[in-house]
Amino acid sequence: MDFGATLRRLRDERGLTLRKLANLAHYSAGWLSKVETGTGEPTLELAQACDDALEAGGELVALARARLSGSTQEGVPRPAQLPAGAGAMFVGRERELELLDEHLELAKSAGTVMTVAIDGPAGAGKTALAIRWAHRVAHEFPDGVLFADLRGFVARGKRADPGGVIDGFLTALGVPVDGIPSSIEQRAAMMRSAAAGKRLLVVLDNAASGLQVRPMLLGAQGCAVVITSRRRMTGLVLRDGAARLTIGPMEPAESQAVLTTAIGSQAEDETEAIRALAEQCAHLPLALRVAAEKVAARASYRVADLVGDLATKNLDVLTMDENDFVHEAISSSYRQVDPPAARMFRLLGLHPGPDIDLGAAAALAGQPFTTVQRLMERLEGVHLVEGKARGTWHLYEPLRAYAARCVLEDEPPESRDAAIQRLTTWFLSNPPASE
Fold first, then answer.
1. Kindly report the CA angle at 422 between 418 and 428, in degrees rounded to 5?
2. Full-prediction pTM beyond 0.85?
3. Radius of gyration of the chain (CA)
4. How far apart are CA 303 and CA 273, in angstroms?
5. pLDDT tens-digit profile of 324-351?
6. Using H for helix, E for strand and C for coil, what is the string for 122-141?
7. Residue 142 in 3-state DSSP?
8. In angstroms, rounded to a whole number, what is the distance separating the alpha carbons of residues 220 and 236?
9. CA–CA separation, 202 vs 216, rounded Å?
């Protein structure tokens, strides 16, 4: 959308006549009328005055700056920034792909922008899903596809700066570097203006929070934004109208298909071992692919051999290899929660089963029920535990194994002993109901 049309829209939204805007901005109504109809050229001074009068948050200034710098250059190549991941080896998630398709169709029908936040635990395949879907629908976005890894849960290094990400997007869309404003608010406004009248797809991967993502959201009809995060983006849902898509473990048939596809001919005639290996990996795509690679890399190593190793050595067989993908994925979530929640998580490694109720968790922590409820909800918010019924949580096997390791490495022996004693006392006082 050009400057004049945007000025007219903002003025109408605020219920101002040209004369009232002229009084506020200290420009003549006749000149403002020419600017709105495109027969008058806006200056930065006029744009700033109108922006202030209409409380446009820098949108008009960004549009004027882009117009004056010649941001609508012809010959700029269509951005196509998607990484090559999630190719031929992508298996399953058909229902989730269909849901993303449905969100896109709903946005088209309503004449709005599509914004979807995909959340789930480490290793659930959020990035692969988003990239796979984006490749599948890229042809519907003729003005380009933009991608950024926001590094929200990296173990080392800094998170991506939203302003820097927007700079890259604007440059890809043809805005000269010297035409990009300095403030994050003005950059965000320019990004929205650059997207107006276009059909763009933006994929924001590995977001830390809604605060990091919000400046990069678009408002233009025909555009789409897909976000992935280990954190539930409640703020984006409630405040910005994003749809939420939570993913967890794959369906058993899908996870078995991941293994057989990745392992290849070595998996022939090992149907039962494939089923057992999928269960040991908790049907989580990252663990499944690491397991498949361990089998495929050694011609003499059978699926049944890995199943046996996992049964005796737990997930250390997967997490202690030279790449350590599973360990690093979970570690980056664990290291970013606050210390009380981190201690609660590692103490769960002392629990004998994957499901724990509030009473047992409170016994482990030695804290009141209300405190532990809040701690478990914080862990649930970043998918280090998954809620079942009210007051009951589940730990997928890779998370249980990691919690068991952390409680040995990070919790003092006397604290571990005291937690086990409290848990034992709790179990004796609250035996499970008889069948």
1. 145
2. no
3. 26
4. 6
5. 556 677 888 888 889 999 999 999 999 9
6. CCCCHHHHHHHHHHHHHHHC
7. coil
8. 17
9. 9
The residues near 91 (Cβ < 8 Å, ≥ 6 apart) are: 254, 257, 258, 261
Left (φ > 0), alpha (ψ -120 to 50) or beta: where does 391 sit? left
Shortest CA distance to 82 belongs to which of 134, 159, 136, 160?
A: 134
- Tell which residue, 319, 349, 326, has the closest CA to residue 423: 349
Give the strand pairing for 392-394 and 386-387: antiparallel
Render pLDDT for 376-420 as a digit per residue (tens, 0 to 9).
999 998 889 988 878 899 988 888 888 988 999 999 999 999 999
Q: CB of 225 within 8 A of CB of 204?
A: yes
CA 247 to chain centroid, in Å, comes to 11
CA angle 40, 41, 44 (to 5 degrees): 135
At 110, the amino acid letter reads A
Residue with tokens 């499901």: 355
- The count of other CB atoms within 10 Å of the CB of residue 371 is 14
Beta-carbon count within 10 A of 127 CB: 19
Q: Find the largest Cα–Cα distance for the chain.
A: 85
How big, in percent rounded to 5, are the helix, strand and coil portions of the chain? 55, 10, 35
Q: How far apart are CA 119 and CA 245, in angstroms?
A: 6
Q: Where are the alpha helices (DSSP H) in 231-368?
A: 234-240, 252-263, 271-280, 285-296, 303-313, 316-319, 325-334, 339-347, 358-365
What distances in angstroms separate CA 313 from CA 124, 272, 276, one per listed residue? 23, 20, 15
Q: Which residue type, as a one-letter code, is found at position 159?
A: R
Position 70, amino acid: G
The tokens for 374 are 């809040």
